[in-house]
Design goal:
single chain; mainly beta; Immunoglobulin-like
Length: 167
């Protein structure tokens, strides 16, 4: 996230890139609300902690010299107009750690919705799968009477399934 940026949504979490001459083994991240002084509790998805709470981010290319990383965080936890600091620590297999920080302001006012938004309807078929099998669904969107205007977009959010474990 660019330092000093204003964001309207985190699109499901925080992310970035990490590089190391040998390999990136792990990225740990912490979020702090600079206006309240509280840190993000990754378990409850709320700013409720008095001390840093570094948690492991998912790596796109574990042990690669360069990788993307991601850690989920819900937008609902971020208060509009507040300033936040993201701290990321990247470790390589030898134990060398590099830390980077970035500050950003959460600003939902940047989102613009048209007066006719939300007039469509969508259906999904099939709705579920047995066990942990992979599911391919068809989404059918019926656009409302206003159609989709210039610059318009369609967003589909799939429900998050529970964990699947196999023996």
């Amino acid at each position: 996230m660019p330092d000093g940026s204003r964001v309207a949504t985190l699109a499901g979490g925080v992310s970035g890139t990490a590089t190391d001459g040998s390999a990136v083994e792990q990225v740990l991240v912490d979020l702090r609300d600079l206006d309240t002084g509280t840190h993000f509790d990754w378990t409850t998805q709320a700013f409720a902690l008095g001390a840093p709470s570094f948690t492991t981010a998912a790596l796109g290319s574990p042990l690669g010299q360069g990788t993307t990383w991601f850690r989920g965080a819900v937008d609902a936890a971020f208060l509009d107009g507040h300033r936040f600091r993201l701290t990321a620590r990247a470790n390589n297999p030898t134990g060398l750690m590099v830390q980077a920080t970035s500050t950003f302001t959460f600003d939902r006012g940047m989102l613009a919705f048209g007066a006719r938004d939300g007039q469509g309807a969508a259906s999904v078929s099939p709705l579920n799968a047995a066990g942990c099998e992979e599911l391919v669904s068809t989404v059918t969107l019926t656009v409302g009477p206003s159609g989709i205007g210039r610059g318009g977009a369609i967003a589909v959010r799939s429900p998050r399934a529970g964990p699947c474990l196999s023996a």
